[in-house]
Specification:
Blueprint lengths: L1 H12 L9 H15 L6 H21 L3 H15 L3 H15 L3 H14 L7 H54 L7 H4 L15 H23 L2 H11 L7 H12 L11 H26 L5
Length: 301
C-alpha cells in the first residue's frame, strides 16, 4: 500500500495546486491553535509537544482504523500534503524568468531570498535546489516507506519548524542591528551551519534534523551516482560515508555536483540550476523505482 500511496501522491502533488493541499496552510492553523491554547510557548517541552502531538495522533488514528482502504486514503492524503513546496517552485520559476530577461540584481535577490526563507547556509542556487529536492521529496519518501504517514509528517513538521524559526530569528536580528545593540541572536540564526557534537546529544531542532538526515542523505547521494557519473562521484561518496562532522547538505551537494558535468558558461546563471534540477528529478525516479522493486520482491510492505 505504501508504494500505491507514493505513486498517487507524486502524480497528484503538482496537479493539486489549491492551498488546502499545501503543508503550510495546515501548519499555520495548527501554530495559531497551539499558541492560543498552550501557555508554555517556550522551552524544550513545548517545542517537543508541538511536533510529537500531531505525529502521535496520526499514528494512533491509522492503527485504530481497520479498513485497508481508509488507511490507504488517509496515508495518501497526508503524503500529498507533505510533498513538495510551492514557495521553492515559484522561486525557481522567478529566478529563471529574471535571468532570461538579464535582470542580474533581481536574479540574485531571488537566490538570497530562497536561502533566507529555507534557513540555508550560503550556497549556489542550483545547490539549494538539490538540497530542497531531497528535503521535500526523497527524505519524505524514505521516511514514509519506513515509518508510514506519521514518519513523513514528523520529518516535514520538523523542517518547517526550523524554517519558521529562521524567519523569527532574522526579524529579531534586524531589530537588534537597527538599535546598534550586541547581536547575540546572530549565533542562533546561523545555528544550522554548525555540525552537532555527538557527545552532547541533540540540543535543538537542528541537531535532531542532522541525525535524521545522516543516513537518508547518504542513500540519496548514492542514487546520484547511478543517474550520473558513477566513477567520478564514488570517491566523494566513500569519503563522506562515515564522516560524522561534515554537514549533511554538503555531503549531498558534493556528490551531486560530481555526478553531473557542470561545464557551462560562467555568465549563464541558469545552466547549473537547470542541470542539477534534471539530475534531481532522475534521482527521485530512481528512488521510486528501487522502492517499487523492493515492494514487488516482498522486501517492503
Amino acid at each position: 500500500m505504501s508504494l500505491l500511496s507514493l505513486l498517487i501522491a507524486l502524480a497528484a502533488e503538482r496537479a493539486l495546486s489549491a492551498k488546502v493541499w499545501r503543508f503550510n496552510f495546515y501548519y499555520q492553523h495548527y501554530l495559531d491553535f497551539f499558541s492560543k491554547n498552550f501557555t508554555a510557548k517556550q522551552g524544550t517541552a513545548a517545542s517537543t509537544a508541538f511536533i510529537i502531538v500531531p505525529v502521535t495522533a496520526t499514528f494512533i488514528m491509522l492503527e485504530l482504523i481497520d479498513s485497508s482502504f481508509l488507511q490507504l486514503l488517509i496515508s495518501t492524503l497526508v503524503l500529498i500534503v507533505c510533498f513538495g513546496c510551492t514557495t521553492t517552485r515559484n522561486s525557481y520559476k522567478a529566478y529563471l524568468h529574471s535571468a532570461f530577461r538579464g535582470e542580474e540584481t533581481t536574479t540574485e535577490m531571488h537566490h538570497q531570498q530562497l536561502l533566507s526563507d529555507k534557513n540555508l547556509p550560503d550556497m549556489g542556487f542550483g545547490q539549494a535546489l538539490i538540497w530542497l529536492n531531497y528535503r521535500y521529496y526523497i527524505a519524505i519518501m524514505l521516511y514514509f516507506i519506513v515509518f508510514g504517514a506519521a514518519g513523513a509528517l514528523f520529518y516535514r513538521l520538523l523542517t518547517t519548524v526550523i524554517e519558521h524559526k529562521k524567519a523569527k530569528c532574522m526579524a529579531a536580528a534586524n531589530k537588534v542591528e537597527q538599535a546598534s545593540a550586541e547581536e547575540n541572536i546572530t549565533d542562533e540564526v546561523h545555528e544550522s551551519n554548525v555540525t552537532p557534537d555527538f557527545s552532547k546529544g541533540c540540543q535543538n531542532h537542528h541537531d535532531v534534523l542532522f541525525w535524521l538526515d545522516w543516513l537518508p542523505v547518504r542513500i540519496a547521494s548514492f542514487g546520484y551516482m547511478f543517474v550520473g557519473h558513477f566513477s567520478k562521484a564514488l570517491p566523494v561518496w566513500l569519503e563522506s560515508l562515515f564522516d560524522g562532522k561534515k554537514p549533511t547538505h554538503q555531503v549531498l551537494i558534493d556528490v551531486a555536483e560530481k555526478s553531473e558535468d557542470i561545464m557551462v558558461n560562467e555568465d549563464d546563471c541558469t545552466a547549473e540550476p537547470c542541470l542539477l534540477v534534471r539530475l534531481a528529478k532522475r534521482n527521485v525516479l530512481l528512488v521510486l523505482a528501487v522502492i517499487s522493486i523492493l515492494t514487488l520482491a516482498g522486501l517492503l510492505n
